[in-house]
Amino acid sequence: MLGQDIILDSDNTDIDEDSTLVEERLNSNIIENNRKSKIIKINNIIKDIIKEHNLMELDKFITFKEDYLSYMRGVLECNSINNENFYYLLSQKLNIKLYNYHQLEAQSSNIAKNIVSDEFLKHSVSILFKNKEDKEFELVIADPFDYESIDHIQSKISSKLKISIASEHTIKKTLKKFKASISGDYKATISTQYHNFTKKDLHKFDNENSELPIIEFVQFVVLEAKKVRASDIHIEPTEDELIVRYRVDGVLQTEVTLPLKVHREVVSRIKIISDMNVAEKRLPQDGRFDIVDEEGKKMDMRVSTFPTVYGEKVVMRLLEQDSLKPSLEDLNLDSEDLELLQNKINSPYGLILITGPTGSGKTTTLYSALSTIDKDTKNVLTVEDPVEYRLDGVYQMQTNEKIGLTFANGLRTILRQDPDIIMVGEIRDLDTANMAIRASLTGHIVFSTLHTNDSIGVIIRLINMGIEPFLVSSAVSLTVAQRLVRNICPDCIDYRTSTELLEHLEENGVTKSKLESLNIELDEDFDYAYGKGCSSCRGTGYRGRQAVFEFFEPTLEIKQEILKSDFDESRIREIAKRDGMQTLLDHGLELVEQGVTTIDEIIRVIGD
Question: Percent of the chain scored above 90 by pLDDT?
Fold first, then answer.
């Protein structure tokens, strides 16, 4: 039989003392002699791989042997073994091909349909491919010793079946993505079928169902955005085409270009599900809708339209309710900054302000701070625009300027609710600033945000808004500036010398004089990490982001400086640095030294 050939070709293992235990258990299960022999041989192969490569500690292996009749099934279910590593070693032992996810994904057009049932492929954790040129079949299976499944598939085809392997996780992930293709339904990912989406596709359906392609297209745009970790989706009409872009790790990337013909239908569909006025194309509109992803997780989509000379531009922001589990520990603060922030949160009163541009992670930092508060003994209220995530034990209110519910009016209401902790989404005007200051001076901890370039700029901004310096000096207990920098992709990380880095920077418009103006010195004896670009990071060299922080605590000396009539910002900065304040640039360069991010990224995000 075909399945047996895999074992017979690689069977150079003798039956040892483990076989006696296995044989006794096989006998108790009344299994025929031929199958007993197979299982013993398979188990010896698995055991050799585990022992030769130290994949499991001895005491765990003893328990492993006792728990599993089939060692292969044990490997698939055991959390103690690195599956990817094991599959590599198994492929070497059996001399068969090992697939990773991206290799399987590249084979999607060769998925064989209607040879065996979808349920059978799901049960056997396998994928069947058919080479269109030579018409040969290849089965990629998680358990190459599953002879019954292999022989069943072989019986369905006339040509020889080639066996390859991949991990259960890899196969299930691939099956999930291409389930629609396997079942023959009209579904595809944005990266395949919809690259050539035109109005002709609508004619594949009768008039009654003519809206179906647009519905599915919008759904897949959203679901694909979630898969690649996009924060925003941009749907943009130009003179002759429609461009779909995703913002991934803070940078916009073109995902697909479509004929302009589909623009009206796509925008109309989005407006319908967002409860917008479809007929209104001259004015900007805001809306929202919910969507459930393939894992059953709910996403909240915030939608905004913007009329342009070529038609309406749409931006959709993805907010996944289950994705935010705020915690100060997850902010990657150093121990001193973490202790400082915790002390200020637990103070009896004070104003804590977070500053940074839109999309710099201020909301996450605020929510992380609120998560540390004991909600059982504290009354925590917020006024936000909008409420992006719902927090347990926190009473959140959303502004609505159409009915007069502004930040200032919301804050007035909160102060009548006997609050202990207050969060104001943003200080935008003098009225809100005055109330936030006074609330912090009357026994409340107040959190809020401002838009300034750095942490010390918060002081200047409040005074320029019209707040008296003595109130600023008394109320502000901590300001935090932050940015988000992209992390180097761990799957394609490489290193270059300082000379190679300088050449790279100059090719991208960053001169040596620019580095000097930023006080950035390259170490000749240090190799700098960077990402070469791979499928995991969509060719960017970066995957994921983390915050760069600048903490500023107004000391007594600085408070006195603020009260002076000849108040000087540069003097405050000088005192703060003397006292050990780490600037945004300092923290960024520290991450470069740790191999977390690159000089390019620090310059892009922090700039001057």
Answer: 45
Nearest to 591 by CA among 498, 495, 487: 487
CATH (residue range 189-320): 3.30.450.90
Dist CA 136 CA 138 (whole Å): 7
Written as one string, the DSSP assignment of 369-381 is: HHHTS-TTT--EE
Record the tokens describing residue 41, joined without a space.
């041989």
> Which residues are bridge partners to 154 per DSSP?
none
Provide the pLDDT confidence category of residue 261 given band limits of 50, 70 and 90.
confident
Are the beta carbons of 363 and 231 closer than 8 angstroms? no
Query: What's the one-letter identity of residue 166?
Result: A
d(CA 394, CA 380): 5
CATH H superfamily, domain 335-484+546-597: P-loop containing nucleotide triphosphate hydrolases (3.40.50.300)
Mind listing the pLDDT tens digit for each residue in 161-200?
Answer: 889 998 888 888 887 766 544 333 333 333 334 444 443 4
Q: Which H or E element spans position 561? A: helix 556-562
Question: Which of 352, 355, 602 is CA-nearest to residue 482?
Answer: 355
DSSP letters, 178-242, are THHHHHT-S---TTTGGGG--GGGGGGS-GGGTTHHHHHHHHHHHHHHHHTTEEEEEEEE-SSEE
Closest CA to 596 of 527, 523, 524, 545: 545
What ranges make up the beta strands (E) of 179-229? none
CATH architecture of 42-181: 2-Layer Sandwich (3.30)
pLDDT confidence tier of residue 16, bands split at 50, 70 and 90: very low
What are the tokens at 564? 């002076």
Task: Read off the pLDDT of residues 331-341 as tens digits, 9 standing for 90 and up.
Answer: 889 889 999 99
Domain ranges of the chain: 42-181, 189-320, 335-484+546-597
Query: Would you say residue 279 has pLDDT above 80?
Result: yes
* 42-181 and 189-320 have identical folds: no
In angstroms, the CA 183 to CA 119 distance is: 10
Q: In 81-158, which ranges are E strands?
A: 126-130, 137-141
Contact indicator for 584, 485 with CB cutoff of 8 Å: no
Distance from C-alpha of 391 to C-alpha of 498, rounded to nearest angstrom = 46
Strands, E, within 101-217: which ranges?
A: 126-130, 137-141, 161-165
Q: Which residues pair with 303 in a beta bridge?
A: 287, 316
Q: Are 530 and 541 in contact (CB under 8 A)?
A: yes
Rounded-to-10 torsion of CA 325, 327, 333, 335:
-150
Q: Is the pLDDT of residue 209 over 50?
A: no
Rounded to the nearest integer, the mean pLDDT of the chain is 82
